[in-house]
UniProtKB/TrEMBL annotation:
Membrane topology: Single-pass membrane protein
Protein name: Sporulation protein YjcZ
GO CC terms: membrane
Annotated source species: Pueribacillus theae
Keywords carried by this UniProt record: Membrane, Transmembrane, Transmembrane helix
InterPro entries: YjcZ-like
Family recorded in the similarity comment: Belongs to the SscA family.
UniProt cross-references to Pfam families, sorted A to Z: YjcZ_2
Residues annotated as transmembrane: 12-33
Length: 34
């Protein structure tokens, strides 16, 4: 995560992708609980 360029995407895009995956994980987790 410390690298400014990851997989051809910039640091901002990589961080946004991680945030989206984290949100999806939370949604799937809550859906699994309920």
């Amino acid at each position: 995560m410390s690298a400014p360029d990851c997989g051809g995407y910039g640091g901002g895009a990589g961080f946004a992708l991680i945030v989206v995956l984290f949100i999806l994980l939370i949604i799937i987790g809550t859906a699994y609980v309920y």
